[in-house]
Amino acid sequence: MSADDLPASAAARNAPEERLLNLVVALMATDQGLTKDTILGSVSGYREQAEAGASKDALEKMFERDKENLRALGVPIETIGDRLEPDDLRQARYRVPTSEYALPEEITFTPEEIAVLNLAAGVWGEASLSVDARSGLRKLGSLGIAVDEPIIGYSPRISLHEAAFAPLQRAIEQCRVVTFPYLKPGEEHPRTRRIRPLALLEYEGRWHVYGIDVEIERERTFLLSRIVGAVKAMRQGFDESLREGAGERALQGLEDLARRQTALLEVHPGTEAALRLHRRGTPEIQGVRVPFVDVHIFADELASYGPEVRVVDPPALRDEVRRRLQAALEVNGAAR
Amino acid sequence: MTARPVLATDRAALMLQLVPYLIRKGEVSVAEAATDFDVTPAQMRSMVEKLTVIGRPGDNGYWQMANDLFDIDWDLLDEHDRISLTNAVGLEHAPRLTAREAAALLAGLQLARSLPGVGDSGVVAGLLAKLAGGASSTPADLIVAPEPVDDVRGSVDEALRHGVAVSFTYKAPDAPATTRTVDPVKVHIAEGQWYLQGWCHLRQAMRTFHLDRVSDLVLTDIAITHGEEQPPALFDMGETGNLVHIRFPAAVASLLRGYLDRAQAVTTSGELTQATIRVADPTSLKRLAAGRGGDVEILEPAGAREAAAEWARSALEQYTGDDSQGRAVSDSAHPEG
């Protein structure tokens, strides 16, 4: 059931968003808090339904759902227990402290900062996070800031095509363990992974999720493009402190890996391969040494360069490149 | 313009932002407010009308008397399509950012930091701290790995700021290098790749250049004359180019996204998909075919298919005499275990 599922007659009189807003106004107007009974009997949206004969049980359920929905919007609903009976929620009082609800007024932005924020809010293009970015920008804008000249000449975009992204982000926010089917290249079937997700990381244009693999209690990084089915959030949660600094650790992990793991390549000068690889590598006597994080992704790229590049080392990378070239030759080499 | 928010909670979230917005604006047209909230004017009008039935509960049976409710100047709305609050009974403050809103902006800032002139100014560092302080709960870490700013990118930035043309050597794949003079219009960053769009003096048209293929770039003292030109979409081929017919397993379609975005026709039967795509040079698909390792078969034109086979064959010849192909990679060093 959602907040929209009201008896038709009541829904016609009071849209659910009206009830939610009336509730926020009421809870912000009180210092000592309102009891549930007071709320259900006086706040518009509940009161009419109580008067129309809705059961107390149904109204209380609606109130619980509304609280949950408002908290998801970031509205901090505080529960003040009875001093004498702290565990007895019947006498609990509810309120929304303005100081925690409102954007702190001491946060101010210079026109230059607003220009950068505008650019930052635009990176999501058509992705669903674009709605969130624009909503955030609107809230900051209501602090009353003049908008400076926009930063022209740049159109930075973050691509987001993986269906796994949104459920993983939600699981990180809620500190919930997730499972997903993960297909590694060269393996026939996907294997279900169970992790505590801690951060999402875009590295070299690809999204990764970083977390702790619950089976082996080790930190692991997974490519979102290899998640081949639904991401499911489990009931099982984890401590929010695990998330502290996780993004930095994830980035550090991939950078360390790229430092340890390099390929020696012979590249024909003046080719596409030379232009793309020399920028990322360091010259050696026998060619150029280029760091990489994933042997399969790098092999895809190197194979596309065809005769422009020859892999000297490591053998595993060389074999992967040859395997791709051989397959491409077999598929396109036969007469049609 | 987005559709009307479907969920009541989403509509409530917008209306929580509406009051502080209207207070700050004083008076605003329905059209302007609608634009600022990404809704239609009709939706904005309905939100404003709804606001007037919201307010403090009142007490002792005197429920929601007129001064307990939000109110607007109705004549102004009916006759002039303008909104002005005449009574506010709360919600004056903008709500804190949700974790999702903060995360979306924080990730965008990390990408903005990679732009020349933005990252080193200290602006982003200050913003990251302020946004973290303005969120109602801890946002999920969304990290965008920084890309190094090289000389080419720095110089393009300088040219954009000074409004002068740049001159550089451009080496497109499988084409001889050319020297170009270009009025820079826009730098696009997509999937970690940087592209310069601008007016090419040689071609007398808007062109897109991958910055990795640019070298020997210098600033000229030619003031730009096409800076206002509206750039086309990044990979818009228009009606130019040639059609290529390819076939691949339906399961790998997502890996070919960049090509399929420009596809003319895509049909899937069983586990195989066929697509017709428009490219400037059909033989350029040899790179796609080799990189996808047998997943992509070029059906037509025959020349492109032969080019793909030859591309793979000549690449393999480089390894003649090496050990025969070894074991498959089992211990990928990617830390996914």
From TrEMBL, chain B:
Any Pfam family: WYL
Coiled coil: none
Span of domain PafC HTH: 13-132
Superkingdom of this protein's organism: Bacteria
Domain WYL: 155-217
Region of interest (Disordered), ranges: 317-337
Residue ranges occupied by any WCX domain in the UniProt entry: 244-316
PANTHER family (alphabetical): PROTEIN PAFC (PTHR34580:SF1), PTHR34580
Protein name: WYL domain-containing protein
Organism: Microbacterium horticulturae
